[in-house]
Amino acid sequence: MSNRQVITASPCGFCSGVRNALTLIEKVLTGSSGPVYVLRGLIHNSGVTADLKARGCIFADRVEEIPPGAETVFGAHGVPARVEAAARERGLRVTDASCPLVKQLQQAASRVGPEKELVLFGHRGHPELEGVLGHAGTEKVFVVESPAAVAELPGSLRHPVLLVQTTLSHVEAEKVKQALKNRFPGAETPGSICRASFLRQQAVRELAPKCDLFVVAGSAHSSNANRLREVAESCGVRAVLLDSPDEVTPELLRGVKTVGLSAAASTPESQIEALRRALLEK
Ligand code: SF4
Asked: Is 206 a catalytic residue?
């Protein structure tokens, strides 16, 4: 055992939306005799996905890949309205595991009427962003991926309304809000990241300056895991995202006395604990 210490940020790990999705899919798996299809992933964690596949879940990218009438689960990131409609047309038996906060964001997008412009701070290609865009009540939709991108919006916007993907950086979201207000003083800016993401980022910001190395437990395709790593890095600390204890190497830990540990909202407790042990023992 080394004399290294590992300090775990609090809170970290599962949020209520992820717990809700996992509870729902357990119910479906228990109650279903046939195959269970998961549309576009349940949550962004490789271990959880591998476990669900091993238990017979079939992951599909498009509704059209799912046989009519099949048991289907929508993931925590939500789906566009057209996908909900296509699932109904196909007679799929749907369990919607979208996080209630993502649902609220979709409803907020649907309330942005045709006379306004929806400006969404988010990452292109992320399923949550596609789901929210797919509920917009206006066709005038603009995605900004950074505060700097606000300068590239057309000057002709009349009533921009800013919404924010739930798992982005709080600091960046505030900068986007300010940049939009500066450019369009009448802009409405009700959007913000979700509270679970905010609290996890805040805990990393408090802990990271006390550490020689910061480790975030989570998968590379998890948006909130990447944001936690960036928050630690912004505190001037070397920060890495690790999906497995096997990725902990002696080189990573050379000269390190204090390691900060956090985890994405989609990272199971067992994975956090396995990493903690590896960081202490290797
Ligand atoms: S990170 Fe926030 S929005 Fe996403 S699933 Fe968790 S609680 Fe819901």
From this structure: no
Token code pair at residue 150: 């606000």
pLDDT at residue 2, as a whole number: 74
- The residue assigned the tokens 């400006």 is 119
Is the bond leading into 67 cis (omega within 30 degrees of zero)? no
Q: Are 48 and 42 in contact (CB under 8 A)?
A: yes
**pLDDT single digits (tens) 160-172:** 999 999 999 999 9
212 closest CA partner among 253, 247, 264? 253
Asked whether the beta carbons of 120 and 143 are under 8 A apart, the reply is yes
Q: Which of 156, 183, 210 is the endpoint of a domain?
A: 183
Contact predicate 16/270, CB 8 Å = no
Q: Considering the entire predicted model, what is its pTM?
A: 0.95
Final residue belonging to a domain, choices 163, 183, 203: 183
Which of 44, 194, 227, 262 has the most ligand 1 atoms within 8 A of CB, as the residue to mutate? 194
Residue 241 φ/ψ, nearest 5 degrees = -110, 120
Residue 25 domain boundaries: 16-99
Q: Which of 128, 145, 188, 230 is catalytic?
A: 128
Query: Residue 137: phi, psi to the nearest 5?
Result: -90, 5
Burial of 245 (0-12, 13-18, 19+ CB in 10 A): middle
